[in-house]
Amino acid sequence: MTKRTPTALTIAGSDSGGGAGIQADLKTFSALGVYGASAITAITAQNTQAVTMVEVVSPKIVSAQIEAVLSDITVDAIKIGMLGTSELTRVVAEAIAGFEGPVVLDPVMVAKSGDRLLDDDAVSAMRKHLLPLATLLTPNLPEAAALTDSGEAGNLEEMEEQARQLLGAGCRAVLVKGGHGSGPHCTDLLVEADGRRAFVSDRIETANTHGTGCSLSSAITAELAKGAELSDAVAVAHQWLNRAIGAADTLNIGEGHGPVHHFVDLWNSQRIGVGQPI
Fold first, then answer.
1. Residue 246's domain spans which residues?
2. Separation of alpha carbons 136 and 192, rounded Å
3. Binning pLDDT at 50, 70 and 90, where does residue 272 land?
4. Measuring CA to CA, which residue among 128, 72, 87 is closest to residue 105?
5. Is residue 209 annotated as part of the catalytic site, yes or no?
6. 79 labelled catalytic
């Protein structure tokens, strides 16, 4: 009997530039050996420089996409990204309420270009309806500050304090992503009820970091889909993203914030250079 392939579902918005959102999630799943299914919540017109238009998909079709996937495909883990509105947030919460596997919630609020992707009502709806369903919440520093109505954390103690406030809202663990911080090192802090663990890597000087948040959360989801414990999943994802950022400049995509190199390990192992046919 053939062994079933680990599978993850991403519920998120589409990035026409290919660097973030659904596109980044599916690339990440594939890069880490996981089959990816998707439910699209919004369509964005964007590139490496700006988001020029956003059109939210109807709640009815979002719910139908999720139901279609879960009714047929055995999904091992779910990642939730851009939701946009309070109505979509509630609909997604209802659609996954019976799901028994791990759920990674990435509270996408602002694009790399600075464009707002989540309205104020949706933030409240997220706190109320989705945080209690989340195995892991993965805010970056500005998102953690917004979700806790506080200033941006400047050290590990402040990161942990905000994470514990979010634990109080119902999620089982919080990973505060440190990519927006400063200094020579980038630190992601995983906080659970019984402790914390820091994941530290050298900060890479590059402008090509579009989709880092989406990709890290998706990488964690992929590892959870394969059966990894949460802390181990975060460790693998953190290391993988560091390699993907380190190789981002080799892609040379767009004139703004280009994407990370999701397939750095595959392309390196096959000695595929940029512009070479596979």
1. 7-153+208-269
2. 9
3. low
4. 128
5. yes
6. no
Task: Assign 223 to helix, strand or coil.
Answer: helix
Catalytic residue among 19, 36, 213, 258: 213
Total domains in the fold of the chain: 1
Tens-digit pLDDT profile for residues 11-45: 999 999 999 999 999 999 999 999 999 999 999 99
Written as six digits, the tokens of 231 are: 């802390």
Q: Is residue 195 part of a domain?
A: no
Nearest residue to 59 (alpha-carbon basis) of 31, 81, 92: 92
Of 41, 48, 89, 212, catalytic: 212
CB 96 within 8 A of CB 133: yes
Question: Considering the domain boundaries, does residue 230 fall inside one?
Answer: yes
Alpha-carbon distance of 255 to 272, in angstroms, equals 23
Burial of 140 (0-12, 13-18, 19+ CB in 10 A): buried
Residue 196 lies in a domain: no
User: Would residue 58 count as lying in a domain?
Assistant: yes
pTM score: 0.93
Q: Tell me 58's DSSP state.
A: P
Give start and end residues of each alpha helix (H) in the chain: 21-31, 59-72, 86-95, 120-125, 141-147, 156-167, 212-225, 230-246, 264-269
| Catalytic pick among 17, 18, 21, 211 | 211
User: CATH code at 66?
Assistant: 3.40.1190.20
